[in-house]
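Ex. 9. Protein: Acetoin utilization deacetylase AcuC-like enzyme.
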Amino acid sequence: MTTGFYFDERCFWHSGGNYALTLPVGDLVQPLAAGGLPESPETKRRLKNLLDVSGLAAELTLRSATPADRSALERVHPADLLDRFKEMSDAGGGELGLRTPFGKGGYEIAVLSAGLATEAVRSVAKGDLQNAYALSRPPGHHCLPDWPNGFCLLANIAIAIETAKAEGLVDRVAVLDWDVHHGNGTEAIFYDRDDVLTISLHQEKNYPLDTGDLEHRGKGAGLGFNINIPLPPGGGHNTYLHAMEKVVLPALADYKPDLIIVACGFDASAFDPLSRMLATADTFRQMTKQVMASAQAMCDGKLVLVHEGGYSEAYVPFCGHAVIEELSGSAITADDPMAASLATRQPNARVEAFFAELIDEMADFFAKPPEGG
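Predicted structure tokens for Acetoin utilization deacetylase AcuC-like enzyme:
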């Protein structure tokens, strides 16, 4: 099995603005010692560092990529947005949307981030690699066509999909988003289409506050091809695996994509400052194992994971390492130092039963033909 790992040091140089967590500094909001948004380079850099130190990086096909070209960007984003982004970037930076600050050169970094995702998808779709992980930064799943949003400046996965389609490499693509926040950008881009299945497994009403509802199932030709699985806080390891088994995997099996892409955020982990979901490194490992089995059954194992959120500098590297261990079939491990503690902190049996019942109800809901649109 050949697993690609796409990264570029320049993506670690993307800079956030004058924020304290997600609050603009000013009035009564003091700056944090670390400064900026929680979407910092350190979670990603430390993941790459851990891969190097453990020796797993040596078993991967390590690659960078060329930036996504303008024609690829314009398949998703209007030209006037791209022009404004470039002009602001050249002038020293700014903020185009909501919580999307960038410094000088931010445009070039974002285009490179999209390029990493695009090349990972291209290489897997062509059969050059069995599967791949793109350490894209800045992330992309919140970005709407005309409005950057939630740390996301360009819609990396959508750009990669549209490029693969334009090159005749895929017809049907499934996107599974297990970032803890709703994948509203990816959903919006493909909401009225049936050639891309979008599935978002997220903490309910975390971010954005007004998207991600169960009833939002697409419209027009896309009706029934958008699936939201909103979970209340505190779900934990077994809840995520149950949601995968009861909703996600059956949806993938019904759709039979040519390629599966995972919007791979690690912010559902128990140590993330922006979530309350209690997932562990093993949660992400087991979900990877599940989706790999689905990919093997329906699209020759063609699977790409594109990095999204995850804001615990200490814990994200162990989550990412577990995923890439599974993805590559490596015997090299980086044992989760918090595994015993997190096993104790998982929801009790009564709470897990509540979550299981809720997910079973969702599965029944999705088994019925969608209404409206």
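Check your answer against this statement. The CA atoms of residues 105 and 333 lie 37 Å apart.
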